[in-house]
Amino acid sequence: MQKTILLNYLTVENISKSYGELTLFENMSFSVHKDEKIAFVAKNGTGKTSILNILSGDDEPDTGTITYRNDIAISFLPQDPKLDPSLTVEETIFASENPILKVILNYEHALLNPENEEVYQKAFDAMEQYQAWDFETQYKQILFKLKLEDLNQKVSTLSGGQKKRLSLANALINKPDLLILDEPTNHLDLEMIEWLEGFFAKENITLFMVTHDRYFLERVCNEIIELDEGQLYSYKGNYSYYLEKREARIEQTEVETGKAKQLFKKELEWIRRQPKARTTKSKSRIDDFQDIKHRASQRRNDHEVQLELNMERLGNKIIELHKVSKSFKDKVILNNFSYMFQSGERMGIIGKNGTGKTTFLNLLTQHSKPDAGKVITGETVKFGYYTQDGIAIKPEQKVIDVIREYGDYIPLKKGRQISAQQLLERFLFSRKKQYDFVEKLSGGERKRLYLCTVLIQNPNFLILDEPTNDLDIVTLNVLENFLLDFPGCVIVVSHDRYFMDKVVDHLLVFRGDGIIEDFPGNYTDFRVYEDSQPVVSNTSEDKKEKNTWKKTETNTLSYNEEKELKNIESKLKSLAFDKKELENKFNNSELSQEAILKLSETLQKIIDDMETKEERWFELSSKLDN
Questions:
Q1: Within 13 Å of residue 95, how many CA atoms lie on the same side as its CB?
Q2: What are the residue ranges in the chain where pLDDT is below 50?
Q3: What is the C-alpha to C-alpha distance for residues 68 and 428, in angstroms, rounded to an integer?
Q4: Closest CA to 196 of 136, 146, 148
Q5: How would you class 440 by CB atoms within 10 Å of its CB: exposed for 0-12, middle for 13-18, buried for 19 or more?
Q6: Are 364 and 356 in contact (CB under 8 A)?
Q7: Which of 298, 307, 373 is nearest to 335 (CA)?
Q8: 526: closest CA among 555, 554, 497?
Q9: Which of 13, 345, 533, 590 has the highest CB neighbour number within 10 Å of its CB?
Q10: Tens digits of per-residue pLDDT, 574-595?
Q11: How many CB atoms lie within 10 A of CB 287?
């Protein structure tokens, strides 16, 4: 059997990077081969962007080497692309180093001198070889998909998100052998992300990327490299495979650490019994003791963000919108829109960029006024508004100072309180990190600190506008669990489909032109519904008739009952997963009687909860069958 030889594109050998006393990583080595689609996963502040900058040549490692294959084309998508502001969108495409552009230019010159048949034939053959005839169609299609239809728009007038999308378009159009991406899904709406997934599935591009989008990881990547506690681990599979194998690795490490601790106790007793004069054999055992001590003292730095908010109860009146309209010149955002928020509501907001999602949030929080209609806010409502702007950085302000602006102690439930330092530790900022300047934090660390300042004000109505940008997967999981237990109202605007699926019960779908539809389910439910609908023309009449999930003659459920049914189905899936996970823990032969009793009590609570929800599910479902 012939062995497949992998074509090596990139080799990283023993690279290290430090900033002053902060060591990001040491002696890191890995490689990228043809057709691999690799995601690099690590906690915020551990050097993900630094590694990408080193790979792109914008930075250099303190030690080690980076080696690229000589004959490959490479493109790099940074977080903040540097584009020539004087060029238009189309001129930016033609200013790139794409070899096809040179072929087209040579062909155009040959057309000006048709008498030179040899030059013309050579140029024509090159057009055939590079398939350059359809280049204009291809780049216009990509720009259209990324909502950059105005080819004559100057780069200087583009928003930050548009510049990121233009830089992405340039990288895709160039069709490099190796594409290095820093958070490619940031500034893309859900439709663009799904298109990009399809693009990578069909194109022969080798990828090395940093992304927190877990569905993107699942559907695009075939390998995940994780930097954890200073060590690199490689997983040859997608995100699901990575989670499974990572959990097994951590459990194995904990078992080995437990064994090392037992051995350490025995060796410590031996050390204490020995006389001062040592034999060669005993000295060797002492040296081994130091290694055992190191292994026994290993512990994971997997703190969880836990915050028991001292939240004020919401009254009966929360937020009411009565026939609200809002436009910007000819662009209609809301048109005679009415809605009443219910206690404990968990709403997701989706829609293409520019359809008015952030404007809607600003109307709710009174940061913007409607053109017509009323927005009435209940007296007990206390907003926590996480905006895309992030935290305002003050010169030479330290992390601890940001929190102390809200007080040295923060009140929690049942009359308890927590110090500013303890609070920051719960948000994964070590005591040492708390005295760093805010301006030195990574993008993800700043977002985590900003999230901390929003939550510690004890809001009972949380509004999160793109909260997942730049947060690492560890922090995202923690935030999701926090929101699942949050008793107040939650509104989330996010392009992170995994996040939306986990935390929201229903969606407001912003279609544009003032058309807003209420869908009773999460994002995956919505995609299944949308994909099941026949393709219709995009006229305004069709849009008005498209909302067919609302009550029909054969559906006798009220709107709130529809929401409840969807919510129960989602919760039953989650409970079934929790039940299976808990049952697996009983397989551990080292469990104490106390631990078994505690697990049994938790399992019984889950079973009782499932039975209660199943009874209600049958009750609601029977109405649909009538």
A1: 13
A2: 1, 277, 298-303, 305, 537-555, 626
A3: 36
A4: 146
A5: middle
A6: no
A7: 373
A8: 497
A9: 345
A10: 777 777 777 777 777 777 777 7
A11: 9
183: exposed, middle or buried (Cβ count in 10 Å: 0-12, 13-18, 19+): buried
CA distance 313 to 343: 10
Report the chain's terminal Cα–Cα distance, integer Å.
62
37 to 94, 208, 583: CA distances (angstroms): 27, 6, 35
Amino acid (one-letter) located at 577: F
Residue 63 pLDDT: 94
Residues 210-246 as b/e (b if ≥16 CB within 10 A, e otherwise) read bbbbbbbbbbbbebbbbbbeeebeebeebbebbbebb
Planar angle of CA 529, 481, 426, nearest 5 degrees = 150
Given a contact cutoff of 8 angstroms between Cβ atoms, the answer to whether 450 and 56 are in contact is: no
Cα(524)–Cα(179) distance, rounded to whole angstroms? 29
Half-sphere exposure for 449 (CA within 13 Å, toward CB): 33
Dist CA 129 CA 111 (whole Å): 18
Pairwise CA distance, residues 617 & 626, whole Å: 15
Classify residue 414 by its DSSP letter: G
SS3 category, 326: strand
pLDDT at 286: 54
pLDDT at site 581: 76
CA distance 18 to 24: 6
Amino acid identity, position 580: K
pLDDT reported for residue 543: 41
Strand runs (DSSP E) across 329-413, as ranges? 331-340, 346-351, 372-377, 383-386, 409-411
Whether residue 17 contacts residue 25, with contact meaning beta carbons closer than 8 Å, is answered with yes
Tallying the residues shown for the chain, one arrives at: 626
How is residue 313 annotated by DSSP?
P
Residue 118, token pair as written in the block: 């040899």
Q: Which pairing describes strands 37-42 and 206-210: parallel, antiparallel, or unpaired?
A: parallel
Q: What is the DSSP string of 165-201?
A: HHHHHHHHHT--SEEEEESTTTT--HHHHHHHHHHHH
User: How much is the pLDDT for 263?
Assistant: 62
User: What six digits make up the tokens of 271?
Assistant: 């050390």
Nearest to 334 by CA among 304, 314, 357: 357
Residue-level pLDDT at 339? 93
* pLDDT one-digit tens code per residue, 246-272: 888 877 776 666 655 666 566 556 555
Neighbour tally for 535: CB within 10 Å: 5
Host H or E run for residue 137: helix 135-145
CB 194 within 8 A of CB 219: no
Nearest to 69 by CA among 8, 16, 125: 8
Cβ atoms within 10 A of the Cβ of 209, count?
23
Tokens linked to 39: 């995601």
Rounded CA-CA distance 574/485 in Å is: 13
DSSP string, 75-127: EEE-SS----TTSBHHHHHHTS--HHHHHHHHHHHHHH-TT-HHHHHHHHHHH
